[in-house]
Design a protein that fits this description.
The protein is 25% helix and 28% strand. The chain is an alpha/beta fold and 405 residues long. The strands form 7 sheets. A 5-stranded parallel β-sheet has the order 3-2-1-7-19, with no helix packed on it. The protein binds flavin-adenine dinucleotide (FAD). The site of flavin-adenine dinucleotide has 35 residues, from α1, β2, α2, α5 and α8.
Length: 405
Amino acid sequence: MSEPLVIVGNGMAAARLVDELAKTALGRYAIAVIGDEPRLAYNRVLLSSVLAGETASHDIELKPAAWWRDRGVTLKYGCMATEIDVGRRELKIANDESIGFSRLVLATGSSPLRLNVAGADLAGVHTFRDSRDVDQLLALGAAKKRVVVVGGGLLGLEAAYGLAKAGASVTLLHLTDRLMERQLDAPAAQLLKLLVERKGIRILLNASTARLHGESRVEGVELTDGRRIDAEAVVFAAGIRPNVSLAREAGIPVNRGIVVDDHLRTGQQDIFALGECAEHRGICYGLVEPAYEQAGVLARHLAGRTAAYGGSVVATNLKVSGVGVFSAGDFTGADGSEAVVLNDPGHGTYKKLVISDRRLTGAVLVGDTADALWYLELIRNREPIAGIRNRMMFGRALATRSEAA
Ligand SMILES: Cc1cc2nc3c(=O)[nH]c(=O)nc-3n(C[C@H](O)[C@H](O)[C@H](O)COP(=O)(O)OP(=O)(O)OC[C@H]3O[C@@H](n4cnc5c(N)ncnc54)[C@H](O)[C@@H]3O)c2cc1C
């Protein structure tokens, strides 16, 4: 008889895990997926394209209903899991139902942070995490509202771009002196700012939010230096927090995320975690690629095969049309590394390749990102680059053609 395997969360990590399990452990588990969003799992990454009007919301579903049915998966969506009874091996669901498990996987993702400032709970204050948020942001665009986006990281930039494209008048606030400071060095960030401003978005740097004004609806944002920006809506895109409460309340060890080992096992036997809610070797990844790598490892582990997860080399791509941005690996250049840089602000191009120990260890591209995946492969595979070093900056075609010649 198949063992009951229950997955909490019906997001990107869960969908990939089921896909991998269907290939590696077909028939061994009777899988149930409990998700609180009221729709089938979808590609959350593409919410930015939905907001920008480049993709329809119904086109981002990861798998159609028949795919889940054909694999015998019991899907419960629109259902919040509320408690894990570790002793009885039961998961409680909001509507008083409970479901037994022999293995439990937590794939609960993250929640967007709302700044802890006065006015943060006023009407008109939004976040950008799920398809319900996108519907609300699209309505702001359609009504040509004045919107302040708080946060100049990947998510904030994509929110600002989508809102502006939808018709809103957008001001983007960023806390530090450069955009995407965790992925870009100063010249890359400066060029990005220029390119984004050309899209009609106003950007304020060194902008620390002190409070939001308004009686019942938000009317403006006040910064700590006294500046005030009028706004009919505010979008917080200032970070995420892993969803760990279910695990914590069940006594499962949690730091920032749910602590897992190289087999994605939590501190509680037969309970696993993956994706954004998990913390592996002190890292909570906020990107989908690590979640997919973890899903592959966990599926093999659950199938009784040998597999271990050793961490991921992460890369970031900004998906704002016309503004190509890519960053991977050690982009700052640790001690002992060298940086090869091409900086042409007039042409809207910046490239930086970081080389350490005769290998590519980091890359930043703004403007032209056509070779991003090739650079990422070189970084991930730790390939020696001596033979292509002098041409590598000019892209794959040139570097590898000359290598073959
Ligand atoms: C707008 C946007 C753009 C992004 N762009 C990129 C990008 O370009 N590149 C990239 O790598 N990443 C990007 N990301 C991040 C990426 O989407 C996440 O890393 C990925 O979705 C993580 O997958 P997950 O399954 O861990 O979490 P999620 O996809 O968030 O899934 C978790 C699910 O669990 C549900 N859940 C939580 N608690 C419970 C509970 N108690 N009971 C039932 N269900 C529960 C949640 O509602 C959610 O549906 C973006 C994210 C957003 C919001």
